[in-house]
RNA sequence: GCGAACGUGGCGGAACCGGCAGACGCGCAGGACUUAGGAUCCUGUCCCGCAAGGGGUCCGGGUUCGACUCCCGGCGUUCGCACCA
C-alpha cells in the first residue's frame, strides 16, 4: 500500500459493516416497542422461499428497496417494525429434497441459516425477535386453525376436481409443471384425473374483493396490481338464458343476450352432466369417444387458444327461446365446465369461436347484428363483433335496436316467459387448497365412517407432520402420509371409533396468506395473533413486493383477511393498506432462474464492494418500480461516491464552528433535502441518490464544508447506506445511532436563489440566458434580455408581437418583421 | 386475441403542471500526478459545422408563443391474462 492519504481517510466497509451489524444486535436498534409504540409503522416485505442456492440479486433488490423505505420512515420518527421470515413449505422444497436425496426437514433449516446470514449481511433493519418459518409447528398450528375457522363457517368444502396427473412420476402436477402437455420432470404425457379436493369459497367474495380495489380508504395499491386483480376476478355482466330440451332445461350464460335470435346451435362442455341424457343412440359411441379423449388431455393444453376446434353432435336438440326453432346440441372441448354453466348458445355470426366451429362443421350462420352500412343480409366473412353504430336485424320486434339496449330488452322479454335473467358472472374460481404431497401442513380433518368429515378439535392442534423417510408421492394419488398407519388411523374426535386422517396437505399460498398477522405476535403460543398487537400494527402500513404475486398471494391474503373480519377476528378487512409493486431485476433480458443459468449471486459483490455500495448500486440502477437488467458496470461509481462523502465528513469533523457557506449552497442543500425526501417517499430511489451526488459535487467544488450540512447529508444517505452512515455519524461525534436522528426538514423560503437564470427564447428558440433578481417583473426581464448582445441581435428590426414570461424560469419574445 | 406499461446519447437513466432535452452515473477521449496505473484528480463527451448556426426524444400528422410531455394515425418492445361464452 502506497496510498498517500491518511489512514483514517480510507473507508473500510469490511470492518465497518460487521461492526455496526454487531452493534445493532447488541443495542436492539432494530426492535421497536411492539406494545407501546406511539407511531407504529408496519413495513412488510415478501418473505422468501429458502432455496438451496441462497438469495439472488433479485431478492436483494426487493428487500433493499423495502428496507430503504422502512429506514426512511424510521428517520421520520415512526416506530418501524420490519420483520422477516421464510415461506419454507411447498413443492419446490420437496422436489429439491427428492432430487438431492435429503429430507426437507433437514434441508430447510440449513437453507434458512444461509438466508439469515445473507439477510444480515446486506444490512436489513430486521427485527429478528419476530422471525418465523411456515414449517414451524408453532406457526402451522395456526394455519390449521385457520382452515378450521373456514371449515366451520362453511367456507371450506370438498369436491371432485380435475387435476394434472403424471402417470410416470405418479403425482399430481401444478399447471406450471406441465410443459406442452408433458411432465416438466420426466417428459411423460400428462393426463387428467378427478380427485377429491378441498376448496375455499373465494368466489363468494368476488364482488367485495373487486369493490374494495376502488376504495382508497381501505387500500392504496399500485395501479398495475389492482388492474391485474380486476382482470383475474373477471367480472362479466350478462344473462342466464334457458333452452328447453327433452332432457330438461339447459341453462347458458351469455354476455350477448342481444344475439339470441342468431343462436343456431348449442355447445356443451364434454363433462356437462346433461350430455348422456341428450345423446341419441346413434351418436352415443362417438360422444363417448370424444368425452374420453377430452378427459385424457391435460388441463393446460386443453386451454391453449389457437388450436383447431373439434366437437361431436350429440343427436339431441334444444329450442331457441327467442325463435322457437329446434337447434342441434353439440359437445366441444372449447367450452369449459368451470366457467359459466358449462354450456353456451352458439351465435356463429357474432362470436369468433362459434364462427370457426360452425364453419368447420357446416352449421347454419344467421346474422342478427348489422353495422351502420350493412344490410340485414350482407354476407359475413367472419364473426361481426363491432358494436359501434350497430343495430339488430332478423330479430323480430327488436330489429333496429342498438345491441346495448337490446341486451336488457331481450333479457326482460325472455324473463317474462320464464327463460332468462340478468346475471353477473366472475372468472374467479374457488381456491383449491389440497395438495397430495408431503411437505406442507396436514389438513386438520378426520374421516369417520359414522360421523363423516370431522374437524380436529382446536386443542389437538397442531396436527404434526410426521417425520417420515419415504415422503415421495406414489401412484395411489393420495398423499404419502396415507402409508403411515400409526399416523393415518386415529380415533374419531366425535364418537371415538377408529377413523382416518385427511392425508392431503394444504397449499403453500395458505401459509403465506396470513403470515403478516403472525409477525407481531410470534411469541404468543396460545393464539394466532394477539388482539392488542394486531390492533396496533395491522393492517400492514406499507407492503412492497413483486408483481408476480399480484393475483395469487395478494388476492388470497385479502380473502383470508376478509373471512377473519367477518368471523370477528379482525376489525379490518383489507390486510395491506398500501401496496407498491417493485420492478423485476432481470439478467440479459431474462428472468433469473437456475435453468437459464443466469442467476447472479450477490455474495461476491458484497464481499468486494461492501453491502452499502451494493445496496446503493441496486437502488441507482433505475426506477425502483420498473426494475431493469442487472450488470455490474457502474458499481465502482457508487464506491467512488461513498469514498468522497467519507472525505467530506472527515473535513467537516474538523471544521470550525464559525465556517460559513454561501447562500447559493444553502439554497441548493434545501432543494436537495426536499427532493430526497419526496423521491424516497415515491420510491424514486435512483433520482434521490442522483440528487445527493449532485449536492456532493457542489460541496466539493471549493466550498467550505459546514458541519450541519455534513450531518444532514449523512442522515439523508442513511436509508441507502446504513452502515456507512452510522460510521460517519460516529465520526462526527455522535454516540447514538444515526437512526435515532430525524430526517432533516427544509425551509421553503430558501429553495429559490436570490439571483436566477432566465432562459430567453425568441420565437420559441433558445437564444441565451440572463441573470435577474428572483421574481423579477416581466419588464425588467425583457430589459435584461435586450441588454444581452447575443439576444438583442435577434430582436433587431423586429416588432414584438407577444411576450411570454414564466417567472424565474423563462422568457419567450415573439416577434415578426417590422 | 384482450389488458397494462413503455420507446430519449455508446450504455443505465433524468426532465415538476406543456417551459434550457440528455441531470446523475457508467463508458470513452485528452491531460495531471506517478517506477507503474485497472488507483486518484482535472477537462471534454447528442449529431453536423472552423464558426455563426442548424438538426435532434421510434415514424407521420395536429394543437400551442413553446411539445420527450397533450391529441389523432402507424411501427416496435416488454409484462400480465388467454377458447371466460
> What does the main sheet amount to?
7 strands, mixed
Rg over alpha carbons: 34 Å
Structural class: alpha+beta
Coarse shape: globular
Mean pLDDT: 90
Strand content: 15-25%
Characterization of this structure:
- Helix content is 35%, strand content 21%.
- With 818 residues, it is an alpha+beta fold.
- Strand 5 and strand 6 (171-173) form a beta hairpin.
- The N and C termini lie far apart (72 Å).
- The chain binds one RNA strand of 85 nucleotides through helix 7, strand 12, strand 16, helix 11 and helix 20.
From the structure above, extract its key features.
single chain, 818 residues, alpha+beta, seven-stranded mixed β-sheet, five-stranded parallel β-sheet, disordered N terminus, RNA-binding
Secondary structure blueprint with pairings:
Elements: H1 13-27, E1 40-45, H2 57-75, E2 79-81, E3 85-86, H3 91-100, H4 104-121, E4 132-133, H5 137-152, E5 156-166, E6 171-173, E7 178-179, E8 182-183, E9 191-200, H6 206-212, E10 220-221, H7 223-233, E11 235-245, E12 250-254, E13 265-268, H8 275-278, H9 281-296, H10 299-302, E14 311-319, E15 326-332, E16 343-346, H11 352-361, E17 369-370, E18 391-392, H12 403-416, E19 420-426, E20 431-432, E21 434-435, E22 445-448, E23 452-455, H13 485-488, E24 489-491, E25 498-501, E26 505-506, H14 508-512, H15 515-518, H16 531-537, E27 542-546, H17 552-566, E28 578-582, E29 584-587, E30 590-591, H18 603-609, H19 611-620, E31 627-629, H20 635-654, H21 663-681, H22 685-700, H23 707-717, H24 722-731, E32 755-762, E33 765-773, H25 778-786, H26 789-792, E34 798-806, E35 810-817
Parallel strand pairs: 1-2, 1-27, 3-4, 10-28, 13-15, 27-28, 29-31, 32-35
Antiparallel strand pairs: 5-6, 5-9, 7-8, 9-20, 11-12, 11-14, 11-19, 13-16, 14-15, 17-18, 21-26, 22-23, 22-25, 24-25, 29-30, 32-33, 34-35
Helix pairs in contact: 1-24, 18-19, 19-20, 20-22, 20-23, 21-22, 21-23, 23-24
The structure holds one RNA strand of 85 nucleotides.
Amino acid at each position: 500500500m502506497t496510498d498517500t492519504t491518511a489512514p483514517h481517510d480510507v473507508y473500510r466497509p469490511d470492518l465497518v459493516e460487521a461492526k455496526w451489524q454487531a452493534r445493532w444486535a447488541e443495542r436492539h436498534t432494530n426492535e421497536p416497542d411492539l406494545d407501546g409504540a406511539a407511531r407504529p409503522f408496519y413495513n412488510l416485505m415478501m418473505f422468501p422461499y429458502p432455496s438451496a442456492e441462497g438469495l439472488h440479486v433479485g431478492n436483494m433488490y426487493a428487500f433493499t428497496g423495502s428496507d430503504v423505505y422502512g429506514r426512511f420512515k424510521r428517520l421520520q420518527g415512526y416506530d418501524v417494525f420490519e420483520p422477516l421470515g421464510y415461506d419454507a413449505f411447498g413443492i419446490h422444497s420437496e422436489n429439491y429434497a427428492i432430487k438431492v436425496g435429503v429430507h426437507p426437514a433437514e434441508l430447510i433449516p440449513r437453507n434458512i441459516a444461509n438466508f439469515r446470514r445473507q439477510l444480515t449481511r446486506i444490512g436489513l433493519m430486521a427485527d429478528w425477535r419476530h422471525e418465523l418459518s411456515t414449517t414451524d409447528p408453532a406457526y402451522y398450528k395456526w394455519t390449521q386453525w385457520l382452515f378450521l375457522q373456514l371449515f366451520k363457517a362453511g367456507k371450506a368444502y370438498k369436491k371432485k376436481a380435475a387435476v394434472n396427473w403424471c402417470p410416470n412420476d405418479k403425482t399430481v402436477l401444478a399447471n406450471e409443471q406441465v410443459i406442452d402437455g408433458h411432465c416438466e420432470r420426466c417428459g411423460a404425457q400428462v393426463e387428467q384425473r378427478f380427485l377429491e379436493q378441498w376448496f375455499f369459497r373465494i368466489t363468494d367474495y368476488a364482488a367485495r374483493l373487486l369493490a374494495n380495489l376502488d376504495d382508497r380508504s381501505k387500500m392504496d395499491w399500485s395501479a398495475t396490481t389492482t388492474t391485474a386483480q380486476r382482470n383475474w376476478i373477471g367480472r362479466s355482466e350478462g344473462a342466464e338464458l334457458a333452452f328447453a330440451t327433452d332432457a330438461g332445461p339447459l341453462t347458458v350464460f351469455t354476455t350477448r343476450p342481444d344475439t339470441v335470435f342468431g343462436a343456431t346451435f348449442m355447445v356443451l362442455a364434454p363433462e356437462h352432466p346433461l350430455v348422456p341424457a341428450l345423446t341419441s343412440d346413434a351418436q352415443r359411441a362417438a360422444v363417448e369417444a370424444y368425452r374420453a379423449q377430452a378427459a385424457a388431455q391435460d388441463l393446460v393444453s386443453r386451454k391453449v387458444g389457437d388450436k383447431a376446434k373439434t366437437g361431436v353432435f350429440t343427436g339431441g336438440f334444444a329450442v331457441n327461446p327467442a325463435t322457437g326453432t329446434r337447434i342441434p346440441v353439440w359437445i366441444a372441448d372449447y367450452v369449459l365446465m368451470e366457467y359459466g354453466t358449462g354450456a353456451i348458445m352458439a351465435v356463429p355470426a357474432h362470436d369468433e369461436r362459434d364462427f370457426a366451429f360452425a364453419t368447420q362443421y357446416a352449421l347454419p350462420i344467421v346474422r342478427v347484428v348489422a353495422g351502420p352500412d350493412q344490410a340485414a343480409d350482407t354476407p359475413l366473412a367472419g364473426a361481426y363483433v363491432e358494436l359501434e353504430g350497430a343495430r339488430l336485424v332478423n330479430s323480430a320486434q327488436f330489429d333496429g335496436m342498438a345491441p346495448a339496449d337490446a341486451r336488457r330488452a331481450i333479457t326482460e322479454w325472455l324473463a317474462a316467459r320464464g327463460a332468462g335473467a340478468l346475471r353477473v358472472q366472475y372468472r374467479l374460481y374457488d381456491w383449491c387448497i389440497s395438495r397430495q404431497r408431503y411437505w406442507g401442513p396436514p389438513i386438520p380433518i378426520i374421516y369417520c365412517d359414522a360421523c363423516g368429515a370431522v374437524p380436529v378439535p382446536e386443542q389437538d392442534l397442531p396436527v404434526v407432520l410426521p417425520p417420515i423417510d419415504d415422503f415421495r408421492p406414489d401412484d395411489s394419488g393420495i398423499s404419502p402420509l396415507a402409508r403411515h398407519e400409526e399416523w393415518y388411523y386415529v380415533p374419531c374426535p366425535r364418537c371415538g371409533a377408529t377413523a382416518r386422517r385427511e392425508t392431503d396437505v394444504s397449499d403453500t399460498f395458505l401459509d403465506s396468506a396470513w403470515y403478516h398477522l403472525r409477525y407481531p405476535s410470534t411469541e404468543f403460543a396460545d393464539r394466532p395473533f394477539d388482539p392488542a398487537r394486531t390492533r396496533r400494527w395491522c393492517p400492514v402500513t406499507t407492503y412492497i413486493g413483486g408483481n408476480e404475486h399480484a393475483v395469487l398471494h395478494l388476492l388470497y391474503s385479502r380473502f383470508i383477511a376478509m373471512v377473519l373480519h367477518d368471523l370477528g377476528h379482525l376489525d379490518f378487512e383489507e390486510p395491506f393498506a398500501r401496496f407498491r409493486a417493485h420492478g423485476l431485476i432481470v439478467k440479459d433480458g431474462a428472468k433469473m432462474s437456475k435453468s437459464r443459468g443466469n442467476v447472479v449471486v450477490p455474495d461476491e459483490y458484497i464481499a468486494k464492494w461492501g453491502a452499502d455500495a451494493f445496496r446503493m448500486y441496486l437502488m441507482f440502477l433505475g426506477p425502483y418500480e420498473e426494475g431493469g437488467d442487472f450488470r455490474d458496470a457502474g458499481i465502482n461509481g457508487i464506491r467512488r461516491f461513498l469514498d468522497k462523502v467519507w472525505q467530506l465528513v472527515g473535513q467537516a469533523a474538523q471544521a470550525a464552528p464559525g465556517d460559513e457557506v454561501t447562500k447559493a449552497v444553502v439554497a441548493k442543500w434545501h432543494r436537495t433535502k426536499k427532493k430526497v425526501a419526496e423521491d424516497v417517499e415515491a420510491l424514486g430511489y435512483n433520482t434521490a441518490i442522483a440528487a445527493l451526488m449532485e449536492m456532493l459535487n457542489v460541496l466539493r467544488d471549493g466550498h467550505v464544508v459546514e458541519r450541519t450540512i455534513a450531518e444532514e447529508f449523512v442522515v439523508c444517505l442513511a436509508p441507502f447506506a446504513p452502515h456507512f452512515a452510522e460510521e460517519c455519524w460516529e465520526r462526527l461525534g455522535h454516540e447514538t445511532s444515526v437512526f435515532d436522528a430525524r430526517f432533516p426538514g427544509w425551509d421553503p423560503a430558501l429553495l429559490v436563489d436570490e439571483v436566477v437564470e432566465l432562459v430567453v427564447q425568441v420565437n420559441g428558440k433558445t437564444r441565451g440566458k440572463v441573470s435577474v433578481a428572483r421574481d423579477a417583473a416581466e419588464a425588467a426581464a425583457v430589459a435584461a434580455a435586450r441588454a444581452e448582445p447575443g439576444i438583442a441581435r435577434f430582436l433587431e428590426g423586429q416588432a414584438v408581437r407577444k411576450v411570454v414570461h414564466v417567472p424565474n424560469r423563462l422568457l419567450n419574445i415573439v416577434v415578426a418583421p417590422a
